[in-house]
Design a protein that fits this description.
binds adenosine monophosphate; Dna Ligase, domain 1; nine-stranded antiparallel beta sheet; Rossmann fold; D-amino Acid Aminotransferase, Chain A, domain 1; single chain; 4 domains; alpha+beta; 29% strand; 23 strands; five-stranded parallel beta sheet; binds glycine
Length: 420
């Protein structure tokens, strides 16, 4: 099978790493890829938001299977374009990807299928939204409806913060994504991520994880795309996961099918857990980054069989073979991230890390320049390890972090604290 993966982050490096180990994979191309991906796959430059370009590339390179990594090409309809051209594709249609691309749409689906989630109201006018905030009072969560690279959510712990959020979103801080606002009840509890493959009919859970969104140790400082993750997430017990599947995920999949827009791909349910019950915070229509890195390290080569069966609507015949183990990833980021950061600093020491199939350094923002590895993004490396216990995985990951020589980078030192 010739496979094309779209994307360039640590998530796509992890997907490529897992797919590549499966003997069914003949040729592997990642577009655009990065310096780490280039060590295991061909990288191609391609406008991954342009469906026609992607289809042409697939035809020229005899691609049999396309795996879409990030949300932007999904929302732009790239999976629709490749499927229409008869190319097997992992990733939802643009209509189905609205589960991530519109928070208001997700709420509508939750209402239609009675899935437990935060109470909410939708607004298109600032004054009406502000009157509502003054009436119900803080704490509230104010969200831009559309895709805002994870930045369109404002915690209104006080009324003033919530009101300021309205000005920010309707003031254009998130462009078109802020044409509508969703205001939600603030949910307390512990967050965890639940990953489910859906072929439109069958749902197959493929793992749980927990992310660390704040930049600083002890969950302090501004929010980021994620500074580390581990899998499994102990807070998502089997019983809570089963209830979330029955009450949230399966009803969503049935409702999407009923509307004629079946959901095919990975559904990433962000859950808030309290008193043994899960409520939906949000859906994403892609793997989490860096959650994918810990899932792929645990799944290995079978990931390709699972994604392929998902695209061929054969999930009912699949099962996941889990090792009873844990994986943990530490994100190394450029100093300054998530604010302004420097690009181009050199990273040394990766080649000297001992070969070990339980350890993997996935690259996010890297490039090769004159034989050196340089940082090109905010989140740069995902230092990932497996172990029989979470503590063992954590110790292995930080041993690698300590062996990497990158003065321009930093990481959190407490990834995994909640579970340990
Ligand atoms: P979202 O992009 O909708 O997942 O929101 C980003 C983050 O904001 C979530 O991961 C939560 O930490 C937090 N959040 C979002 N909605 C709520 C809510 N209704 N109650 C509490 N926290 C929330
Ligand atoms: N790590 C959070 C996300 O991928 O959305």
């Amino acid at each position: 099978m010739n496979i094309l993966i779209l994307g360039s982050g640590g998530r796509e490096h992890a997907l490529a790493w897992a797919v590549k180990q499966n003997p069914k994979c003949d040729r592997l191309i990642v577009a655009p890829g990065n310096a780490g991906i280039a060590q295991i796959a061909e990288c191609a430059s391609l406008d991954i938001l342009n469906g026609r370009d992607v289809v042409r590339f697939c035809e020229e390179n005899a691609i049999d299977f396309v795996i879409v990594g990030p949300e932007a090409p999904l929302a732009a309809g790239v999976a629709d374009a490749t499927r229409a051209a008869g190319i097997l594709t992992f990733g939802p249609s643009a209509e189905a990807a609205r589960l991530e691309a519109s928070k208001g749409f997700t709420k509508e689906i939750c209402d239609a299928c009675n899935a437990p989630t935060a109470g909410y109201a939708r607004f298109t006018e600032a004054q009406v939204a502000k009157d509502y905030i003054r009436r119900v009072g803080a704490p509230l969560v104010v969200k831009a409806d559309g895709l805002a690279a994870g930045k369109g959510v404002i915690m209104g712990m006080t009324e003033a913060e919530a009101l300021a959020g309205i000005d920010e979103i309707f003031g254009g801080a998130f462009g078109d994504a802020g044409a509508e606002v969703v205001i939600e009840e603030f949910m307390e509890g512990e967050e965890a991520s639940f990953f489910i493959l859906s072929d439109g009919k069958t749902a197959l859970p493929i793992g749980t994880a927990q992310d660390h969104k704040r930049v600083g140790d002890g969950d302090t400082g501004p929010n980021t795309g994620g500074m580390g993750a581990y899998s499994p997430a102990p807070v998502l017990t089997d019983a809570i996961a089963q209830a979330a599947l029955d009450e949230i995920v399966l009803p969503t999949i049935r409702e999407m099918a009923r509307r004629g827009t079946p959901y095919q791909g990975v559904l990433y349910a962000g859950l808030m857990i309290r008193d043994g019950k899960a409520r939906l915070v949000e859906y994403n229509c892609r793997f989490g980054d860096p959650e994918c890195q810990v899932l792929m390290l645990r799944l290995g080569a079978q990931a390709l069989d699972l994604l392929h069966a998902c695209a061929e609507e054969r999930l009912a015949e699949m099962q996941v073979n889990w090792a009873e183990d844990h994986a943990l990833t530490v994100v190394m980021a450029a100093k300054g991230y998530p604010g302004a950061y420097e690009k181009g600093s050199e990273i040394r020491g990766l080649a000297a890390l001992p070969e070990d199939s339980r350890n993997m350094v996935f690259h996010a923002g890297t490039a090769a320049r004159d034989g050196a590895l340089i940082a090109t993004g905010g989140r740069v490396l995902n230092v990932t390890a497996r172990g029989e216990t979470l503590a063992e995985a954590q110790a292995r990951a930080y041993a690698m972090v300590d062996a990497i020589d990158w003065p321009g980078g930093f990481c959190r030192r407490d990834i995994g604290w909640r579970a340990l």
